[in-house]
Design a protein that fits this description.
The structure holds two protein chains of two kinds. Chain A has two domains: 232 residues, P-loop containing nucleotide triphosphate hydrolases (Rossmann fold, 3-Layer(aba) Sandwich), CATH 3.40.50.300; 70 residues, Alpha-Beta Plaits. Chain A has a six-stranded mixed sheet with strand order 5-6-7-3-8-9, sandwiched between helices. A four-stranded antiparallel sheet of chain A has the order 11-12-10-13. A three-stranded antiparallel sheet of chain A has the order 2-1-4, with helices on one face. Chain A is an alpha/beta fold. By secondary structure, chain B is mainly alpha-helical. Chain B contains eleven helices and two strands. Chain B has a two-stranded antiparallel ribbon with strand order 1-2. In chain B, helix 1 packs across helix 5 and helix 6 packs antiparallel against helix 10. Chain B starts with 15 loop residues before the first helix and ends with a helix. The chains are: A alpha/beta, B mainly alpha.
């Protein structure tokens, strides 16, 4: 089972990179009136990979998903899913989608929702399998209105996979979930990938993209600003963050080799550097009273911030 | 796995049997959804029934309108009133909520044929319409001294249930233009004045002359006349004249709903 090791991995096995392009946006722009939600976006998802579309709120992630689902048509460019138009019923038979929904009919039971959605597809998963895959055993006879936020998301997830689709679009699947519920959904998403499904996931949780994705596409203000494995994205910005309490004046620290940025944070200073070792060596050499030393690697969070800010 | 092929191998369309099962399921769950929603199921049935009991059975026991029993007359007008409520709320408020709060997008992203969803909503409105008219009939016969032969009763129910379709269409048109929160208010603002002006509360002959002229231009008037003609109290306008009016109204409403359906894609999509 591909589970725990992917949690923190920075390596993507080559075998996961199948060749066939399942869906793509080719130079796609989408305008809502004067708002440019997407500007000349090119992206392609290959069979069997899990791609995370990462960006802040309003970046255009949901718009991209809606275009790929055929819920909206592009203002320019071409959308292709399984070589066709996603609005075609034959294409939709092979697509599953989990969208952000404010309200689902609350008086129907979970299994009734599943029963109905399964009937839309030609070869749906057996009900028991869907229930197991989404962890709904305890709640399948409850009405949707009685469910907690995490349970609701799991039901929406189940609706996305019940038709046994080849590609699954998950639009912010874990938004608003607590840590445990999020982990559970991650587990279920991983199982889908190991079962051979292709997944496009949008998120503004950087940790989520890091934990799940084979490939991350960073989007901001309707444009793709970076693309690569989580490791490659991280590598696009400087590597380490050093925090310590020191007597040294900031100007002195700023002059150390490899230092990118220094700022004062309460009693401590925070240093961003390409190479932690050289800087730490200098610090210790010049300030015997130095204390509270911490070295952390710049997370995807920093990478993401740097990427989106440099684009303004 | 099928995922390895990137191009679209033509998926065969649904066989007839599966399609039929899908349509039946869609309607069944739509019905359950509303049946379990007391704000809909109770209020759409209770309001016309309550009015009928109050004005037809309690207050005007020996009353006549143009020499005919009030309890019988009101079967046609409160029946029409009930049909309108069941149709406008399920399709107007229902669609606006599902549309505005994202559920309809989930359904549209699935391979569900959109027609199945609309048909289900229409069928549910028609089922509730028949429940309303049957309740009125039972109450009228049991407590209001209504005499009606079974064939006429059947025709009456049938007419009103078919008459639900134009109002379902109007409901769809409202549902595709109103916001999720304002839709119930919009429906009421159309439903209540239209009912009064069409003579569903006060018999049309008792309305001032200029209001009577307005009534002949309103769809509920025509449905109530079809019902009243059956029980012998109508103005006697021809069967086809009233149906043609209702059909025209239905097509206009569906046209408007279609514009809204297509606009949704551009605005929200």
């Amino acid at each position: 089972m591909i589970t725990a090791w992917r949690e923190s991995t920075e390596v993507v096995p080559e075998t996961k990179r199948a060749q066939g392009v399942v869906c793509s946006l080719q130079g796609v722009s989408k305008n809502y009136g004067t708002v440019h939600a997407l500007k000349n976006v090119r992206l392609a998802i290959r069979a069997g990979e899990l791609v995370a579309l990462l960006g802040p709120n309003g970046a255009g992630k949901t718009t991209a998903v809606k275009l790929l689902l055929g819920l909206a048509s592009p203002s320019a460019g071409q959308v292709s899913v399984f070589g066709g138009n996603p609005a075609q019923p034959e294409v939709r038979m092979r697509i599953g989608a989990m969208l952000q929904v404010a309200k689902v009919p609350e008086t129907l039971r979970v299994r009734e929702h599943l029963d109905l959605f399964s009937s839309y597809y030609l070869n749906p998963m057996p009900m028991d399998e869907v229930v197991a895959a989404a962890g709904l055993e305890q709640i399948k006879d409850r009405r949707f209105g009685e469910l907690s936020g995490g349970q609701r998301q799991r039901v929406l997830f189940a609706l996305a996979i019940c038709g046994n689709p080849d590609i699954v679009f998950l639009d912010e699947p874990t938004v608003g979930l607590d840590v445990e519920a999020r982990r559970m959904l991650w587990e279920q998403i991983r199982k889908l990938v190991s079962g051979g499904k292709t997944i496009l996931l949008t998120t503004h949780y950087l940790q989520e993209a890091d934990a799940l994705a084979d490939r991350v596409i960073v989007i901001n203000q309707g444009q793709i600003i970076a693309e690569g494995t989580p490791a490659e994205i991280k590598a696009q910005t400087s590597g380490k963050k050093i925090r310590c309490v020191s007597q040294l004046p900031i100007e002195v620290v700023r002059a150390f080799p490899g230092v990118l940025e220094v700022k004062v944070d309460r009693e401590a200073i925070e240093i961003k550097a390409k190479n932690a070792e050289i800087v730490v060596h200098e610090l210790l050499l010049r300030d015997a009273s130095l204390s509270g030393l911490e070295v952390t690697s710049a997370g995807l969070e920093e990478a993401f911030l740097a990427l989106t800010q440099s684009n303004h | 796995m099928a995922t390895s092929e990137a191009t679209l191998t033509m998926t065969p369309m649904r066989p007839m049997g599966k399609t039929l099962a899908l349509y039946v399921k869609e309607a069944r769950y739509e019905f359950l959804k509303y049946l379990r929603l007391p704000v809909y199921s109770l209020s759409t049935v209770l309001f016309p029934v309550m009015f009928y009991v109050l004005f037809g059975l309690v207050m005007n026991r020996q009353g006549t309108i143009n020499g005919i029993s009030v309890a019988t007359y009101l079967l046609g007008t409160y029946g029409t009133f009930g049909v309108m409520g069941a149709s406008l709320f399920a399709n107007g408020a229902g669609v606006a909520a599902e549309r505005g709060l994202g559920w309809m997008q989930v359904k549209r992203a699935s391979p569900m044929p959109p027609f199945a969803n609309f048909l289900a909503k229409f069928v549910v409105s028609m089922i509730f319409s028949s429940i309303i008219e049957l309740s009125l009939l039972v109450l009228g016969i049991a407590f209001g001294g209504v005499h009606i032969d079974p064939i006429t009763a059947l025709k009456l129910v049938g007419t009103l249930v078919l008459g639900a379709v134009p109002f379902c269409s109007l409901g769809l048109a409202i549902g595709f233009f109103a916001g999720p929160n304002s839709a119930p208010a919009v429906v009421n603002m159309i439903y209540l004045p239209l009912s009064f002006l069409s003579g569903l509360w006060v018999p049309v002959d008792m309305l001032p002359k200029f209001l009577q002229h307005i009534a002949t231009g309103l769809p509920p008037y025509h449905l109530s006349q079809l019902a009243l003609n059956l029980i012998g109290y109508g103005h006697g306008g021809s069967f086809w004249y009233h149906w043609e009016f209702l059909l025209g109204f239905m097509f206009i409403s569906l046209g408007v709903a279609r514009i809204g359906f297509q606009r949704d894609e551009k605005m929200y999509g």
